[in-house]
Write a structure and sequence with these properties.
Length: 210
């Protein structure tokens, strides 16, 4: 019986990489295109997760920021993505949400989402796979948790980096120039899209800062 080597790649890790690689090789299947439209669709996918929290009654504010370095941040005041170890996958639920294709919390059951506006567990995974880097911070249980990914691959396990009395999820990502024709976010395109989403979701405040 072979001894398990710490840090070795098993079937689970290979499956994750296969799923992310499929997104990178065929991005059009997930975000429609790799032009300006597809680029801005990434923001919508992250915002959709926050809107799911609003639809479930746990979030009333989403702040979208185009950062000076060209990255984009989406922050909400929802419950925060669950941080506990996923019983089936053996890693944090945050990591499952951002890396395991078709393993989202939107398939019904006990997910807490009666209505979903996203791509059924593919949305933020596609954003992660198609970003040069992505950082997620979750405020929950009195702590701030953080995980960093490079082109979809986690660089370390979810870690506690501080304390807080707030709850919510903050995602910052930098689109991958290897995938997209342009990686420059345009304020006006996002303004129109976010205004539509705010109109469709009563009681939800969405801000956009460039």
């Amino acid at each position: 019986m072979s001894e398990k080597v710490e840090g070795a790649y098993g079937a689970e890790q290979i499956q994750v990489l296969d799923g992310l690689e499929h997104i990178r090789k065929r991005p059009g299947m997930y975000i429609s295109s790799t032009d300006e439209k597809g680029l801005h669709h990434l923001v919508s996918e992250v915002v959709d997760n926050s809107i799911d929290e609003a639809l479930a009654g746990y979030c009333d504010r989403v702040d979208v920021t185009i950062n000076p370095d060209g990255s984009c941040t989406v922050e909400d005041n929802g419950r925060g993505i669950p941080t506990e170890i996923h019983p089936k996958e053996g890693v944090s639920t945050v990591e499952v949400v951002f890396t395991k294709v078709n393993a989202g919390g939107k398939f019904g059951g006990d997910s807490g989402y009666k209505v979903s506006s996203g791509l059924h567990g593919v949305g933020v995974k596609a954003v992660n796979a198609l970003s040069e880097w992505l950082e997620v911070e979750v405020s929950q249980n009195g702590h701030i948790y953080k995980q960093v990914y490079n082109r979809g691959v986690p660089q370390r396990a979810l870690q506690i980096i501080g304390d807080t009395d707030k709850t919510g999820t903050k995602v910052t990502f930098y689109p991958d120039a290897e995938i997209f024709e342009t990686i420059v976010f345009k304020y006006e395109i996002l303004r129109v899209r976010l205004k539509e989403l705010a109109f469709l979701n009563k009681g939800l405040t969405i801000t956009l800062t460039d």
